[in-house]
Amino acid sequence: MTEVEKIVNRIKSNMTSTDHTQDQVTQMEKSTSDICPICNGTGWELNKETRAYKRCKCYKKEKMQRLWKKYGVDPKDIKKLNDYVPIDEIQKEAKGKAVDYVKDFETIVGNKENGFGLFGQPGAGKTHILLAIGAALISKGIEVVYMPYVEVMRELKATVMDNEYYIKFSSNYMKARVLIIDDLFKDKLKNGNLVGELKESDIKHLYPILNYRYLNNLPTLISTECTPDILQRLDDAQAGRMLERCGDNIIVFTGQKYNYRMKKFMR
Ligand SMILES: Nc1ncnc2c1ncn2[C@@H]1O[C@H](COP(=O)(O)OP(=O)(O)OP(=O)(O)O)[C@@H](O)[C@H]1O
Ligand SMILES: [Mg+2]
Ligand SMILES: [Zn+2]
């Protein structure tokens, strides 16, 4: 019996195994009706000819959902692009670009300019639009990983001593088919002004993710309160790469009028 066959048998017989506890937890949370028919809920699919096991596609899907739910977001019940009601030409343009991005994703992904960037004013709907794009791509069967910048950076910093976990955790973001980085560099700004600079920890934890994605031409969707100008002041070279990859899919919201959260106070 191969090592993998042993593992599969162990899961099937429901014994505890530290490596696969998460698989089991996920399985136990599910009712029998939605257990994957391909792998019987083991997460491993057997090739009958070669007798080799590989990860079942349900495993990737579940892993992706875990990464969203970990930060309190369920891709199934987030606001849609249709719920975004533009107040002017800029917001109309943002919505239009988002709709086209989803529609033409299969073509766009092969281009160098396959990113998407929303900049500026808090409350303008940057997160709303990016999450809506993410959910729409997921429903097309595309793997999208959500990375709330502050929370994920905190976890990366906290787990750096646990080498094995760190590498696994970081590579979720590095290698995601599509990555949404929400509120990039939030810790560097206060009221729209630059109050911090890049730290050694940013270079250590964030840059490997950005660099890997850049070199492998993987699409990254970014929301940030920074303006492109502030990004450039933080790090000219990295900002240049990010903006370059977004091509025309860049929107900058400038001014309080875009702050949806303040709407009820501004009549
Ligand atoms: N044009 C709009 N139509 C409908 N809802 C909107 C619009 N703009 C913003 N909202 C809503 O306003 C709230 C704030 O938007 P969101 O969190 O996406 O803003 P943000 O630009 O990401 O802000 P921050 O920089 O603070 O993260 C959300 O509930 C969002 O759905
Ligand atoms: Mg936001
Ligand atoms: Zn399966």
Automatic annotation (TrEMBL):
Residues in IstB-like ATP-binding domain copies: 109-185
Lineage of the organism: Bacteria, Bacillati, Bacillota, Clostridia, Eubacteriales
UniProt cross-references to Pfam families, sorted A to Z: IstB_IS21
Identification of the protein by name: ATP-binding protein
Family matches, as InterPro entries: IstB_ATP-bd, P-loop_NTPase
GO molecular function list: ATP binding
Biological source species: Clostridium brassicae
Keywords: ATP-binding, Nucleotide-binding
